[in-house]
Write a structure and sequence with these properties.
Length: 394
């Protein structure tokens, strides 16, 4: 067999998100794109702000020689300085450029971190529901993912995280604003998680790192302000990207940032730089680095996504769906009528509505709706959503 047994095994459980996206492509080819309502993939419909295009053009037009050559594996020093200055303002704690790594998107950054901190058999705790790729990222580096159910409102349960931590626990991986629920973790929640991890670290005798995956940080609704995970817990590592806040997911540019109170920060920075190289990323793309250095603090208008949330969430709630109103990102995670998410997702397919079953996120009985689509797609799907609720078995 040309494919390794391990990869073949993992492929059987590969992402429901991509499966539904591919089903959407088939339906669009058969029925026309205008007759299919595809909420499967978190692919931002918004175009990047004009400043993004200008920054990329300026970076491309730089007259200095050597702008397309290799640079230090951690990234251009001046780019990391610009990012460190912004993160210091944004999180309210001091960041140093030599504790930052420019990475190939948040997915690349998470793999760099996990490669650096996991020994074979080490555990990473995640809050369920979780982003499906986490299980593959952890497995990539010999670790074992342990799902810990969320508490009410899909918020992390600090007591459950503390109880789940054991001698092999290397990290807790959080994601806020959350994919798939859109729930935002406030400062009080993060502080409680930090307290729980301090107790767990003391009990287990090892530092448990908090890895915070935050690509949706700047897409917040209802006047919310972002919390600071670094104020909640010292051994924290941030992984983020500009895929969502600048609407450039295809450009694959992000950052890994080590908190100022993280033990052995210099050793971690060295390990991250090494891992970035040996995993084959080598360095984050040169052009993207130079462009985003000019764009720190810029974001798409989150009010556009907030309006889409209000349109879809309001319609689903009016129809009778049970859904936690999201505070950020661009996802809804309603309860599946009847409790069988796979059956209900198939029922929606008959209305040419594509969503992702909650089973793919470790939360059977729900389904995810990515509403980062055109308004006409939301409006066109609303009658079908209502019909499926009235007659889920039709």
């Amino acid at each position: 067999m040309p494919v390794s047994r391990r990869v073949a095994e993992l492929m059987k459980g590969s992402s429901w998100i991509r499966r539904m996206f591919e089903e959407g492509a088939r339906l669009k080819a058969a029925h026309g794109a205008e007759n299919v309502f595809d909420f499967s993939l978190g692919n931002p419909v918004l175009e990047p702000p004009p400043e993004v295009v200008e920054a990329f053009r300026a970076a491309l037009d730089e007259p200095a020689a050597g702008t397309h050559r290799y640079m230090p594996n951690a990234g251009y020093p001046k780019v990391r300085e610009a990012v460190a200055e912004f993160l210091t303002r944004d999180y309210g704690v001091p960041f140093a450029a030599d504790r930052l790594l420019m990475c190939t998107g948040a997915g690349g950054g998470l793999n760099v971190v996990l490669k650096s901190i996991l020994d074979p058999g080490d555990e990473v705790l995640v809050v369920s529901p979780w982003f499906p790729e986490y299980q593959f990222y952890v497995d990539n580096h010999g670790g074992r993912m342990v799902a810990v159910p969320a508490g009410p409102g899909f918020l992390p349960d600090p007591a459950a995280l503390e109880a789940a931590a054991g001698p092999r626990t290397a990290a807790v991986l959080l994601n806020t604003p959350n994919n798939p629920t859109g729930v935002v973790y406030g400062q009080e929640t993060l502080d409680a998680v930090g307290e729980a991890l301090r107790r767990a670290s003391a009990r287990t005798g090892r530092v448990i790192h908090l890895v915070s995956d935050e690509p949706y940080r700047r897409i917040l609704f209802d006047g919310r302000r972002p919390a600071s995970v670094f104020r909640a817990y010292g051994p924290t590592i941030l992984v983020t990207s500009h895929s969502k806040d600048l609407a450039i997911p295809g450009e694959r540019i992000g950052v890994v940032a080590i908190g100022p109170d993280c033990p052995d920060g210099a050793a971690l920075a060295g390990a991250f730089t090494f891992a970035n190289r040996v995993l084959g990323f080598v360095n984050a793309p040169a052009l993207q680095q130079r462009a985003v250095a000019r764009l720190q603090g810029l974001t798409v208008d989150p009010r556009i996504y907030e309006r889409k949330r209000d349109l879809l969430c309001g319609a689903l709630q009016a129809a009778g769906y049970e859904v936690v109103r999201p505070g950020g990102a661009f996802y809804l995670f309603p309860r599946a009528p009847g409790g069988d998410d796979l059956a209900f997702v198939n029922r929606l397919l008959r209305e040419r509505i594509l969503v992702v079953p909650g089973s793919g996120f470790g939360a059977p009985g729900h389904f995810r709706v990515a509403y980062c689509v055109e308004d006409r797609e939301i409006e066109g799907a609303i009658p079908g959503f209502a019909r499926c609720l009235r007659d889920p078995g039709a």
